Amino acid sequence: MMGARQGFQREHRTGTRIEILYGALVVTTGNFLPPPPRGLSNRYVQSRDSESRDPTKYMSDFCYTTTRGERMSVPLFHLAPDLIVSRLCFGTMTFGEQNSLPQSFRLLDEAFEAGVNFFDSAEMLTSLSVSGASAKSYSGVEREVSRSLDERAEDTARPCRCGYQDATFIEVTVLLRPQVTGPSGQMTWIRGGPKSLDANNILEAIDNSLLRLSLDYIDLYQIHWPDRYVPMFGETEYDPSRQYASVAIEEQLGALGKAVDAGKIRYIGLSNETPYGVMKFNRLAENIRLNSNLVSLQNSYNLLCRNFDSALAECCHHERISLLAYSPMAMGILSGKYYSLGGGPSDARLNLFRGRYSEGESRYNLSNPILKSAVQEYADIAVKYGLSPASLSIAFVLKHPLVASALFGATKAWQLREVLQASKIHLTMEIIAEINKVHARYPNPCP
Predict the structure, then answer these.
(1) Are 348 and 337 in contact (CB under 8 A)?
(2) What is the Cα–Cα distance from 440 to 396, expressed in whole angstroms?
(3) Where does the record place Basic and acidic residues bias (predicted)?
(4) Contact 253, 288 (CB under 8 A)
């Protein structure tokens, strides 16, 4: 494993320069950054304006796809003027656990070749079997993914990965998006089991991720879940009596601001947040003149969980925050496999790790008859229009004008290819109308 990535470069046999620059794998034939779509940069400079815009216009401003003859096939999205991500984000949660690391990296290779440049990580991921975790091996996924990308950067036989939009060269940057683990007394292998997400824990987590990933800085860094009490993972009502003493958001932003000023992170994001949390973070960031933008919110969004649309969508639209939609297939439930004969494959996540995922046991309750009916009716729509249930699910999420990227997981090549193909599917208004009818009958069975 080489050290910090700043300045590493190697000549490609064809003259293409391959360099690992400030934490990003860049394969390029030019020495310039791709400009944002017309007008985007100015909007980010004045990102706090209250001007409302047509959602369809919002999509065309921020997102574009490559055209025939280009190498990249997965659409791209500007999270910020200088932060381009693929609209599919490959989650690494199963790497080394639900499948082996060699299997995982073969999938990573195929995803990269197809144009996926966005990979989801978190310090809580262990790259271990379900039997347990330890301080020695925690966050192993970050180390292994980093090592894998190093090896790929040093492989001079790799072709140049690039694309064009309006005759403009697009560099392809591999973006690893780590997250700091929130308070959890159970995860004792992470910094001794953080009891709070205070400034010291945040700064230590950032430094540790930089070391594991061999980076000089992180492009996008997110808080995995709030320090304060919020209803999560299937809970739908806020209970004031459950409130407890928590770290002030001002302290958390102060730590993130220090990391930004030190050049350790560039942009910040939130995850599993509420409308209150998003607005509070944004207002306080303005008050302390944070030298960065809050650009992303990573929350669950799928056909069975559309809570984002009720209040968070308005917040994100006006604050210029993009949604990174996790669980676009509701932990695989929307594929229909768990309702097949025998309850689905034994190696499917909710079967293999039964009882392990609190989210799977609460939000995605397979014994809920309403959930089963909704899954069946969405599958019927997919069949009617010649799609697989998975393709319909992914395409629905990507159609949302505020979704920057859908975070998916795959343990098999055919699953990955199905998701890649779904990124090219356009759902007609007729299909959306049928989807909305099912949603009206079974609103958010997995909130």
Answers:
(1) yes
(2) 16
(3) 46-56
(4) yes
| Burial environment of residue 446 by CB neighbours within 10 A (0 to 12, 13 to 18, 19 or more) | buried
Pairwise CA distance, residues 6 & 19, whole Å? 9
Nearest to 172 by CA among 180, 162, 182, 164: 162
| Residues facing 7 on adjacent strands | none
Q: 105 with 148: CB under 8 angstroms?
A: yes
138 annotated active-site: yes
- Is residue 374 within a helix (H) or strand (E), and if so which, with residue range? helix 369-384
The pLDDT of residue 116 = 92
Distance, CA of 313 to CA of 130 (rounded, Å): 36
- Distance, in Å, from the CA atom of 440 to the CA atom of 404, rounded to the nearest integer, reads 25
The residue written with tokens 């079997």 in the block is 129
Phi and psi (nearest 5°) for 114?
Answer: -85, -5
How large is the C-alpha radius of gyration of the chain?
21
Q: Counting beta carbons within 10 angstroms of the beta carbon of residue 221, is it exposed (0 to 12), middle (13 to 18) or buried (19 or more)?
A: buried
Check residue 311 and give its pLDDT: 93
Residues of the chain predicted below pLDDT 70: 1-72, 124-141, 149-174, 176-178, 181-194, 341, 351-353, 355-361
- Angle at alpha carbon of residue 400, lines to 433 and 67, rounded to 5°: 105
Cβ partners under 8 Å of residue 245, min gap 6 = none
Q: Identify the active-site residue in 22, 58, 64, 138.
A: 138
For residue 218, the SS3 value is strand
* Angle, vertex CA 380, rays to CA 378 and CA 382, nearest 5: 75
> What whole-number distance in Å separates Cα of residue 420 and Cα of residue 427?
15
Per-residue model confidence (pLDDT) at position 32: 27
pLDDT at residue number 271: 93
Q: What is the pLDDT of residue 444?
A: 95
DSSP per residue over 51-75, as a string?
Answer: ----HHHHHHHHEE---TT-S--S-
Q: Which domains are seen in the chain, by residue range?
A: 1-33+74-237+245-300 (3.20.20.100)
Going from the C-alpha of 99 to that of each of 130, 134, 347, 349, the distances in angstroms are: 11, 19, 9, 11
Q: What's residue 187's pLDDT?
A: 65
DSSP 160: P
What's the pLDDT at 156?
A: 34
85: enclosing H helix or E strand: strand 83-86
